[in-house]
Amino acid sequence: MEAKDGTSNPSSSTKKKSRKPKYSKFTQQELPACKPILTPASVILIFVAIGIVFIPIGLASLFASERVVEIVHHYDKDCIPLKYADNMLAYIQSSKTNKTCIRRLTIPKQMKSPVYIYYQLDHFYQNHRRYVKSRSDKQLRSKSNENKTDDCAPERYTTKGVIVPCGLVAWSLFNDTYKFSVNNKQLGVSKKDITWKSDQKNKFGSDVYPKNFQSEGLIGGAKLNSSIPHCQLSENCTGE
């Protein structure tokens, strides 16, 4: 209805829907809560209790770490002949130079087995996006995926065909080898069980053999035996 003056009647107009949410103690943060009043005495008591619990744990961890024997040895410069001191790259790339290097290490404490061996590379940025993407997990998983090298650029093909394993990750395979001896007694170095069980089962197929690897152009690292399955080279085969 309209009033005599032509204005609308407020009582007859349609009510607007309210956007106000339904009242709830949860949405309004009115649920019962514990709000303790901390006094200096209670704070000191809490810290003392935490200290009683964690100080023995810290001492035990410190004692365990003190028993660890770690030897770090940099051999990159010591193993370079003097005439190649100013051009180490030429020494590394040359196929005519003898790269056997014998180093003597002194162990300050008794090392209990197993002894773990790691190598460290400086200024080698493996987290570069192009480097990380340059590999093919499908190719490593099965021989039927040999030609799936879309992500392996620039190490995809040679004039002889597809590269297995392809990509920059495989191309830059670290090629230093180590032998250890104590009192002229040779020590064995095992590469077994250095990968996760899930990787052994799902990532490396027993029918994948190296093919055209490090055969042309710039050699990036170690060469692989084409008669041995790729997984056996690092003892990653699962026997399936």
TrEMBL record:
Residue ranges with Basic residues bias: 14-23
Q: Where is it localised?
A: Membrane
In terms of InterPro entries, this protein maps to: CDC50/LEM3_fam
Any single Gene Ontology cellular-component annotation? Golgi apparatus
The alphabetical list of record keywords is:
Membrane, Transmembrane, Transmembrane helix
Question: Which region is the signal sequence?
Answer: none
Region Disordered, annotated ranges: 1-24
| Transmembrane segment boundaries | 41-64
Recorded family membership = Belongs to the CDC50/LEM3 family.
Protein's name in the database: ALA-interacting subunit
Write down the species: Malus baccata (Siberian crab apple)
